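Deliverable D5.2: sample structural annotation.
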Amino acid sequence: MKIIFYKNNEQTGFLEIDPHQSKTANTFLEALSQTTKTSTTYNHSFTRSKIEVINDFLRLKELVNLINNSSYDRKIDVDLNSDFSLQKLFDLHEHFEDLGERFRSDDPTLSRDAYEEIINLGCEMNGLIHKLEGNLYGSQWMQALFKKPNIVRIPLTEEIISEAVPDYKKDHMYVGYGETGKNMAHIFAMNEVDLLKRQMVQPQRYILSEFFISFNDSYLDPKEYKNWCEKHGASELGYDYNNPIWYGKWEVGRIISKSYHAIEHFPEYDEIKVEL
């Protein structure tokens, strides 16, 4: 499997992935084969300069203003006039989670016109939030979503669930999370107890036509994770936190060849194509 990057229709680089011989990998490739295998929907957490971070922050402020000046009935009250922090990004993300939950639950107070007016703004805001979280938190990753015309979702089976892993490995490809909100591993890492208490945590439900590549190792300490869940009453709130759908990652394969030597030389791109 080869991922090819383009900028202004010119190839700028590539990644070659060796897929695992697993149900997860086979299902992911099946989902990907149902798409156009071309993506302009992507984000990543690494940048080449401080000015890029500043520009992302300015665009985030602009998106918040556009949403607040739209017909959407719930305004964003996060103050971005002075600076930004992880906590402010968490608070912003909660507004996106709220939008997704209202739409998923068919909230009668959410008009279709208001939703269609801001959904693209909300999705762009969500991407920037995760990118800036990566900048502040120190992680480095990229993801891309492939559609035809919608994202392909194939429900998890027991066999796929059994292939879950707890950790991210450097230069490995994973199935995208693709749920509105965060899973238990996400909120544990950021100690977001309030999201747990308000039952805003979401499990993995599908193999998606979306990939995630980690450029850092990330280890989930099982003892600390269990202690945190028990301390904050996850079981009493209805979460079977030991089930991998709440914390797991699904590995597709690993990078075996690439066109760059260091992450700071990662190719610039505005389009991604996949060859299977």
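Annotation notes: The chain has two domains: 1-46+140-276, 47-138. Helices lie at 23-33, 50-68, 86-104, 112-137, 158-161, 184-190, 193-197, 222-231.
The annotation will be released with the project's public dataset once the embargo ends.
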